Amino acid sequence: MSGTQPRDSGPRDRVEGGGIPYSRPPYDGTGRSILAGVLIGMGVAAFVDETLFHQLLHWHHFYDRSTPAAGLVSDGYFNAAGWLAIVGGLFMYADLHRRQATVPKRVWAGGLLGWGGFQVYDGLFQHKVLGLHQIRYGVEILPYDLVWNLTGVLGILVGLVLLRGAPRAIAGR
């Protein structure tokens, strides 16, 4: 095909302007590794919450302040949002892998931060502030709230510990 430029396949020596060669620095995927992990972690937490507590145990719906039909519809939107987060995070992860810029320790840290952040946000803001639903109805709620929120805090703390210090080598290098 005439007139087409070759596709840029990554960092390599180039000549620009005055013929001075330079090399593009390798892509640092640290921040995107964390973000990919956060999206995947949030999506997995939403999927487990939706599947276990909404569908299998029938403890609640995403929105319980209306009819059962409205609760089911809200569950559908919640499930879709969780899957969009997983798919978006996996696309970011695949792009990092293609660029050989994945930082696995940062992906895990982001995943735990996303999962724990989802738990705490859901348990405190959606349950207590907005009152969209409770973890369970007709029982003493405090033990459920403590387990839900403390496991989320634990995920956040472990994620923060993984963020400390230098990341291990970038995968594929």
Model description:
By secondary structure, this protein is mainly alpha-helical. It has one domain (29-163). The chain has four helices and two strands; from the N terminus they run E-E-H-H-H-H. It has helices spanning 30-56, 68-98, 104-129, 142-163, and strands spanning 13-16, 20-23. The longest helix is centred in the middle third of the chain and has 31 residues, at 68-98. The mean pLDDT is 86.
The chain-level mean pLDDT equals 86
How much of the polypeptide forms β-strand, as a percent range? under 5%
Shape: elongated
| Order of adjacent strands in the largest pleated sheet | 1-2
Q: Tally the helices: what do you get?
A: 4
Number of domains: 1
* Strand/helix succession: EEHHHH
Structural class, please?
mainly alpha
Main beta sheet strand tally, sense and closure: 2 strands, antiparallel
* Strand element count: 2
Q: Mind telling me the C-alpha Rg?
A: 22 Å
Q: Termini distance?
A: 34 Å
Q: Percentage of helical residues?
A: 55-70%
Poorly predicted segments: none
